[in-house]
Amino acid sequence: MKIISNPLELKAYLNTIDASIGFVPTMGALHEGHISLIREARSKNEIVLVSIFVNPTQFLKGEDLDKYPSRDEADKKICSLSGVDILFFPNAADIYTEDEVSLQAPNVRGYVLEGTSRPGHFSGVLTVVMKLLNIVNPTRAYFGKKDAQQLNLINLMVKQLFMSVEIVPVDTVRESDGLALSSRNIYLSELERKEALKISVSLHIASIMIGKNTLNVNEIKEKMREVLEPLEVSYTEILNRDFEIIEKIEIGNSIILVEALVGNTRLLDNVWL
Ligand code: AMP
Questions:
Q1: Would you call the peptide bond into 230 cis, given omega within 30 degrees of 0 as the criterion?
Q2: Which of 131, 134, 144, 167 keeps 20 to 30 A from 200, CA to CA?
Q3: Cβ atoms of 37 and 144 closer than 8 Å
């Protein structure tokens, strides 16, 4: 596995290669969720390229940028064992300068749900994803459905800016008890870990209700709120796959999303129905 930290060096190297490239952008502290993205990329592309970059512009003041988990050596090993060909490992000065051109997330879809509690977060996400896509110029780029709003906005960016990369969504990987894997789970105490389960349980109960033909969105959201008690819930929302509000579940076109604070840790989860 080749490890490169300089964007121009990576571009020059990739220019010498004529092959399909599957790209998996991450912020490191890799877990089975990331590995599943890598596996998907491995199955469809000749070259698999992973980036590890904790992007400062998507963290708001007071968020966990400085203590975001970092496991460089373990991450390198995981990539190498997972069949990654190239690991792109830049630092902030390789990606950003003082006075920057940046992308602005759309005013409506970028400032609802997670965008409400983290205003500006998605502008940082889109800016870095655009930079990374321009550096790597991949055939396909892989993103987790767990970050459903991020995935929706990246799809929107690719469409609206007429980019030619194929965005591939990948299912959420969970612990055996249902908790969605996240690099931030290591912040949870034992007690918080138990409380966090309420998030996936609320989604599970919502799915059961829908299976029994309860399709009214407000009824489902009310039940979810009950299950999530006493967590501090940022939102429970049920939308269609274009992130528009719906009143009745549309099977095959709906997403149920939850964001809750467990202790000081903000956790996201969702199901696609
Ligand atoms: P992160 O390192 O948290 O920025 O995540 C990098 C990529 O991995 C993003 O596309 C995430 O949506 C995806 N991802 C994170 N957690 C999971 C998971 N549990 N299952 C599948 N994909 C995930």
A1: yes
A2: 167
A3: yes
* Residue 258, phi then psi, degrees to nearest 5: -135, 140
How confident is the model over 201-253, as pLDDT tens digits? 999 999 999 999 999 999 999 999 999 999 999 999 999 999 999 999 999 99
Largest CA distance in the chain: 57
Q: Which helix (H) or strand (E) holds 87?
A: strand 86-88
Peptide bond before 106: cis, by omega within 30 degrees of 0? no
- pLDDT at 102 (0 to 100): 86
Q: Which atom of ligand 1 is nearest to the CA of 172?
A: 20
Please state, in angstroms and rounded to a whole number, the distance separating the CA atoms of residues 105 and 202: 29
Cα–Cα dist 58/122, whole Å: 7
Report how far ligand 1's centroid is from the alpha carbon of 146 (Å): 7
What separation in Å is there between the alpha carbon of 213 and the centre of ligand 1? 31
Residue 254 host element (H or E): strand 254-262
The CB of 131 under 6 Å from ligand 1? The reply is: no
User: Does pTM top 0.70 for this prediction?
Assistant: yes
Q: Determine what percent of the chain falls in helix, strand and coil, rounding each to the nearest 5.
A: 40, 20, 40
